[in-house]
Amino acid sequence: MTNAYAKWFSRVVWLGIVVNLFFIVPQVFMPDYINVTYNLPVGYSTVWNRAHGMMVLALSIFYIPAAIAPLRTPGYSWLLVLSRLLAAGLWAWVSRTNAAFVSCLLMDGSFGVVEGILLQLALPQDSRINGASIARVLGNFFAGIGAALRKPAVRVALAVLVVLIAVAGYILWDNLLRKEPDISYASVEEHYKHGAIGLGPGSQIPYWIWKVMPEVFADRLPGPGGWASLGLIMEPGADLPVGFSKRHLGYDAVEANCALCHTGVFRRSPSSPQEVILGGPANVLDLEGFQRFLYGAAADSRFSADVLLPAIEKIHSLSMVESLLYRNIIIPAMKEGLLQQKVAYSWQESRPIQGRGRTDTFNPTKFNVFHMPDDNTIGTVDLPQVWNQRPRVGLNLHWDGNNNNINERNYAAAMAIGATPKSVLIPSFKRVTDFLLDLKPPAWPFDLNKDMAARGKTIYEQHCAECHEFGKPRTGQVEPIEQIGTDRHRLDSFTAQLVEKFHSINQPPFVFDAYHKTNGYSDVPIDGIWARAPYLHNGSVPNLWALLQPPQDRPVLFYTGYDVYDPKNVGFVTDGPEARQVGFRFDTGIPGNGNQGHLYGTNLAEKDKWDLIEYLKTL
What we know:
By secondary structure, this protein is mostly helical. It folds into 2 domains: 4-149; 188-521, no CATH class. Helices cover 47% and strands 8% of the residues. It is built from 23 helices and 15 strands. It has a 3-stranded antiparallel sheet. Strands 4-5 form a two-stranded antiparallel ribbon. Strand 4 (263-266) and strand 5 form a beta hairpin.
């Protein structure tokens, strides 16, 4: 038997189920969108979004019997009301620190209150909720528990259950969540190379999987040498490449730091050892290739416990508990995470290959963090140096001069590799950024013709210093694109709409108020210019000699990512069998790779050009 109140209760429950679907679908299929909508930290894990979506789906299914016959089992219908009110209580608690969840509070709270009133009115007078009925229900409940607990078998079973839950909980916490203090290296140089800055869980790779991946998936690497084949710098005796730190977060894990993109290398000759340049551009790093290796490995059938665990056992003996967790949680979670990233970065497939020493700086933020529509822009640039930051304070930073706050720039760079406001290790991050304030550029490592350099200094002061020397009015200012004339793709990729998105972030220390849209490229200081080849913002000119030639005389095709230095032309060797074997074929005819513009010095006499180059070696 039903009545008008019961009918309206049923209708409101059905409406609630439909409203839930509008919440379930984005939670399960667009979890990143939900993170942005509710102002969750940048890079926040999406696993719980999908889990929450499935939980709400399950609840919605359980709502259906109450929607069909609300008075058949009144207790069941009251549980529906209770679930809404409990959810509202959760959202009220969460809303104390994140106002975006007020909408969830209003939705669940409204449904809970309306459904509760309608159900109370729909029930017969003697079945309605009141103080006496609540006391009666609670009394019967506790009496039943008391009677059960008086039975020895129940007490023993309960004690065993509590112990098992406690042991299982401790094991999971100890092996998946227990954090050990991060390493603070005695040497600030070592801390720069291997100290953790604090990335989010989605940017970490389990250490023992990291160790065996180059062997298991050797056929997916560009050549021999394991991780080094992707341009990661392997120093003698080091456990990890430069730019990676080891942390213990329940289990050992590997994550990147600033040095990954800002450490260069060179060799004086093909037979010379590799020399490391701290703070220099990562000239041999194939960052996009590194991504594709990880994504390809995750999609490979060999990315399974049956293959990875035996490979790990060859170099490290896992305990039984560790093996179980790797098999059932760690390996599947890493595979799923990488496959999600592969989909998130699929926009790269429609862009030209970035190649060694380069990356797309802001499109990942546009498409993967803020979920802006794909505008088909190309933002590929040469990785920059980060030494000598103190005199750069207040200058317009990034290639297009879009931010003049060095603290913001640093945190934005950390965000780009996976740090979140909650994960970033502020003391460690500060130690690294303080180190870079006064890190000096490397001195020219070859012979120098002092007479030529002296003549070149005069030419430099006449033709270059105004825009490229610290303290000059135009240094660090933005040169209009119509004046500089270089490839404008990177400039166009950073949009006014992205500026608005950056300004919307207010999760200290991630606050990005200084971003602004420009119409050109910054006149950057050129300290340590010899170690910053190739040149221009997109790395489209291989050496200083080529930069001083008219654009039509600059190389059209060359190879980047080879580390042997060319001291005559001041740049890296860009042709020959070895350069072709390990390097990236740079084609200046491809969109985003244009080598036009920056005509300054191109009209100098040949002798003056060589004198100028000799002086530039000393900066």
